[in-house]
């Protein structure tokens, strides 16, 4: 009926809209990043001048900080859209909801996780991470942060209609992050000990693809429930 | 193109319960091409709920809605292409300019965005195209959302309080557009607390009563 309807165009439209909004609303990008920096800095200060201790806890601290800063930024993924009514319009678009949701999650990842990934090596240096671990840290963050965004989006979609969903969101989502956290820190640890970590990476990649395929559908269903 | 009296949208035996209160029960509705329906009723009688059910945003407690004889849940893509729903909140992003908002709304429905500037003229927003929506009034927000009405292939319009915050001149324009759409074979379902100034023979009114019994 409508020949110009294209899924790719709808994906691009949402992506560019969300990126434009994020760039005009710069605290959305800066706040989670500052939080990430501050949490890691606090750890470094709290532990004190003990390079060996820092070296041991570095992968875990960096990953937990990444996880919390993702959680901090997740809520605005659907909240504003829900409040101003554009979420209803998304759900009523002729395009399948999972494509639109995927575009939103991708935009969210670009805005919050990419700066974090780029900044991580600097903070790793502050945490005295073993030089062999840098590459592994980068790769685990690159593969792991999209999982955080994808799984987190399900929780946000479920709690978007609640007035104070923040705490509930953390309770829902943080347990789901545990496998990623275990695998990622184990991979970085393995790399610092000069042992192979490709196995860990492969499982993280598998988790990534599994969540990439399933999460958008779950988010779409959850949004329908939330707006009901 | 299509027979003028064909049933495009039918609702069978609809009922809606909110917070253990029956809003409406066993409602049968048939919308034909060219129909304008005004849903009336006091606050809290379920006007918005009915519209949301018809749009497929809200699950009815009972009953079903069929689009061209198919349940709307089973022909989402087709139904959504033919549907234009404007809810209570206009769905306008404060961080985007007027033009960007309109372009996005059109792109989402797969529509051409070449004529955006002319559309803004239709809703008296000409000259505001590069203004951020955050700097505009509630009425102007609604106008941004309503601009789509002047360029849409959707035949079924479901408008929830479209006249809210719109000035008299704008209301007149909008009613004109609604009539035009119905004359071209479209269906308009709207709620409003004001009286429509359309010829009474042109529209039907469904008044929802408050049901007390449970």
Automatic annotation (TrEMBL), chain A:
Keyword Transmembrane: yes
Membrane topology of the entry: Multi-pass membrane protein
Transmembrane segment boundaries: 33-54, 60-78, 90-123, 135-160, 167-188, 200-223
Cited Pfam families: CcmB
Example GO BP: cytochrome complex assembly
GO molecular function, one term: heme transmembrane transporter activity
Keywords, alphabetical: Cell inner membrane, Cell membrane, Cytochrome c-type biogenesis, Membrane, Transmembrane, Transmembrane helix, Transport
Location(s) in or outside the cell: Cell inner membrane
CC terms in the record's Gene Ontology section: plasma membrane
NCBIfam families hit by this protein: ccmB (TIGR01190)
PANTHER family: CYTOCHROME C BIOGENESIS B-RELATED, HEME EXPORTER PROTEIN B
Its biological purpose: Required for the export of heme to the periplasm for the biogenesis of c-type cytochromes.
Recorded family membership: Belongs to the CcmB/CycW/HelB family.
Name under which the protein is recorded: Heme exporter protein B
Organism encoding this protein: Thalassotalea litorea
TrEMBL record, chain B:
One Pfam assignment: ABC_tran
PROSITE patterns xrefs: ABC_TRANSPORTER_2 (PS50893)
Domain ABC transporter: 9-213
GO annotation, biological process: cytochrome complex assembly
Keyword Nucleotide-binding: yes
GO MF assignments: ATP binding; ATP hydrolysis activity; transmembrane transporter activity
Keywords: ATP-binding, Cytochrome c-type biogenesis, Membrane, Nucleotide-binding, Translocase, Transport
Coiled coil: none
Domain of life: Bacteria
Full protein name: Cytochrome c biogenesis heme-transporting ATPase CcmA
Organism: Thalassotalea litorea
Phylogenetic lineage: Bacteria, Pseudomonadati, Pseudomonadota, Gammaproteobacteria, Alteromonadales
